[in-house]
Amino acid sequence: MAPAKPSSSKDTYSVILPTFNERQNLPIITWLLNRTFTEQNLDWELIIVDDGSPDGTQEVAAQLVTAYAPHVLLRPRTGKLGLGTAYVHGLQSARGNYIVIMDADFSHHPKFIPQMIAAQRAGGFDIVTGTRYAGDGGVYGWDLKRKLTSKGANIFADTVLRPGVSDLTGSFRLYKRAVLERLFECTEARGFTMQMALAVTAKSKGYSIGEVPISFVDRVYGDSKLGGEEIVEYAKGVLQLWWST
Ligand SMILES: Nc1nc2c(ncn2[C@@H]2O[C@H](COP(=O)(O)OP(=O)(O)O[C@H]3O[C@H](CO)[C@@H](O)[C@H](O)[C@@H]3O)[C@@H](O)[C@H]2O)c(=O)[nH]1
Ligand SMILES: [Mg+2]
């Protein structure tokens, strides 16, 4: 799909970037985001929600706030409070009418953002989700166990809930701000289950979801924070949603 055409619209895109031990990734992802939005002539901001990373991520973020002023904001929290509440926290400071949620470790590459914006504009979608499991999308660098976990999680949720979204666990998404606010209000899940719960709830409320195939490349620096506990929580979350819808 063609990238979004340069625009002089009044739209503002707020990128919410949760970080935990992303000192090495943060400067490069910020540079790429700045280049991407500048090339597209789009108004943008980056909101870094760091949870007291012991590796010094916040010190790096503070330098980026100065270097990219006024585009970068740091909204730190004192402890590791999880991905879902980090999004909610970041949204409180966002001024954009569109919100991009993504990871800081390059598994979600900024180069896909113009395609997501173009898809949103073309289809008028409430949400556009990056998908690893449709079209040219794919996953690179994961071992077999992680690939099976991810694919299995999607098949499980799709079989139980039938939402018609090809990548339910992916978190690289563009939302209309009002839609995300509404979904946060009516979705209890705040762990790794949240991505799936947001997509399923969105569908049940009649919001439209477009898809853009993405290449998800495993991180080079740092470690994933996904563990066995999150997988059990995910399975419980699918069943709870099934029960309540
Ligand atoms: N602030 C904050 N950030 C966090 C926390 N835990 C993780 N992060 C940040 O959230 C992003 C994703 O964390 P990863 O640890 O890299 O997750 P992953 O295992 O690669 O999982 C990704 O893929 C899954 C789908 O397969 C997604 O479900 C998941 O949301 C994420 O995108 C990274 O930017 C990481 O620094 C936390 O407790 N607090
Ligand atoms: Mg990752």
Structure description:
Component of the dolichol-phosphate mannose (DPM) synthase complex. It contains 8 helices and 9 strands. The chain has 245 residues and is α/β, with parallel strands linked by helices. The strands form 2 sheets. Strands 3-2-1-4-7-5-8 form a 7-stranded mixed beta sheet. It has a two-stranded parallel ribbon with strand order 6-9. Helix 5 runs parallel beside helix 8.
Topology:
Layout: E1 12-19, H1 26-39, E2 43-50, H2 57-67, E3 72-74, H3 83-93, E4 98-101, H4 113-123, E5 127-131, E6 138-140, H5 144-161, E7 173-176, H6 177-186, H7 194-204, E8 209-213, E9 215-217, H8 228-244
Parallel strand pairs: 1-2, 1-4, 2-3, 5-8, 6-9
Antiparallel strand pairs: 4-7, 5-7
Helix pairs in contact: 5-8
GO cellular component, one term: endoplasmic reticulum membrane
EC number: 2.4.1.83
Keywords: Endoplasmic reticulum, Glycosyltransferase, Magnesium, Manganese, Metal-binding, Transferase
What low-confidence regions span 5 or more consecutive residues with pLDDT below 50?
Answer: none
Sheet with most strands: strand arrangement: 3-2-1-4-7-5-8
Specify the biggest β-sheet: 7 strands, mixed
N/C terminus separation:
34 Å
* Structural class determined from secondary elements: alpha/beta
Q: Which radius of gyration do the C-alpha atoms yield?
A: 17 Å
Binned strand content = 15-25%
Number of strands: 9
The average pLDDT value, as a whole number, equals 91
Compounds present?
Answer: guanosine-5'-diphosphate-alpha-D-mannose, magnesium ion
Question: What's the order of the H and E elements?
Answer: EHEHEHEHEEHEHHEEH
Task: Give helix % range.
Answer: 40-55%
